[in-house]
Amino acid sequence: MSKVIALGVSGGIAAYKAAALTSMLHKNGYEVHVLMTRNATEFVSPLTFETLSNNRVSVDTFDRNFEYNVQHIALAKKADLFVVAPATANVIAKFACGIADDMLTTTFLACRCQKLICPAMNTGMLENPATQQNIETLRRRGMKFLDAENGLLACGDTGKGRLAEPEEIFDYIEELLSPKPMAGLKVLVTAGPTQESMDPVRFLSNHSSGKMGYALAKQARNLGAEVTLVSGKVALAPLRGVQMVSITSAAEMAKAVKDAFPAQDITIKAAAVADYTFAETSPEKIKKGEGELTLSLKRTEDILRSLGQMARPDQVLCGFAMETQNLLENARKKLEGKHADMIVANSLREAGAGFGTDTNRVTLITQQGTEPLELMEKEEVAREILRRCLAILEKKRGK
Ligand code: CTP
Description:
binds cytidine-5'-triphosphate, elongated, alpha/beta, 399 residues
């Protein structure tokens, strides 16, 4: 059954972003019911939201027929989440005081479900102690806030007050509505490539985009885990609600991961770590000469192997294996040799799998057997991997 979202839209120029959010939610299978303040209708027409949500929009409490009003009391009961985006200083103040003088504020007050408020306003209004105190009051009552961002505001000022982007709001909604089987667990994920410096100008690296590791960290967060993501340099935005640790080289990754590892319940090594680094890094730029240049490389630490040696029996360790040939045989060797509980094997030769793609086709290798998964989105692959890790953890802990 689809989840029901009550989306309150109050009067600010950012109301147009709520239209994009409505479309995103509807396309992803949510049932969206939009409630607008009268001021919001000055910025975007209710017809826009009615078309995008496929549901009627409500504005005033008393200007529609009786049957419709009853339906809206029903909305307060059936909503799984009440989102207010954009939330002006005015509606936030009303929420804090319990004022209910239109359809949006009335339904908000009647609703017992989780609430997510996304403020958008002029910086002065946001920073005003009255607004700050109202936000604090609502936070204390358990309401979630997605902070306004810094940037150029419609009034011409530059500062904090821009509504978070629709993708960010959508991401938070997905987190809030996700079941939390990993609540109370700590999950460490590594992602992206490492870079080994040759001199101050050049480095040795690989094509890892970090997408698989970021998908794992995000899904683990959504499932309720406390997540640390140790990431090499990637073109992806940092993840909200995840402790981000940024590293460059394999040696830096080894240190960050080994420091964090003892506190973890589940560790997943999705990073593409360099196996070799330069025997010497030149402090100055290496100038070109006439003949060939020979550079000497030395091995880096195999971090997964070190973790396999450090691991306690109540911890779960999962590695990846990226191969171009003999996928399953090589992956099983990594499982045994590195003392991991699971290896996620993927082949660079497979269409839709590997570096930079949004999809992946993997085979999960454990002591119990070999399980090939279908080609699917990396987000979905991530959920499958986490589900298996959780099952292994529960088995180890006798649950
Ligand atoms: N890995 C690691 N430290 C390294 C190299 C790899 O922790 N120095 C981890 C990766 O994060 C991954 C797993 O080991 O989880 C396998 O990585 P992969 O590059 O497929 O294999 P290697 O072990 O490096 O072996 P080979 O290069 O011979 O395939």
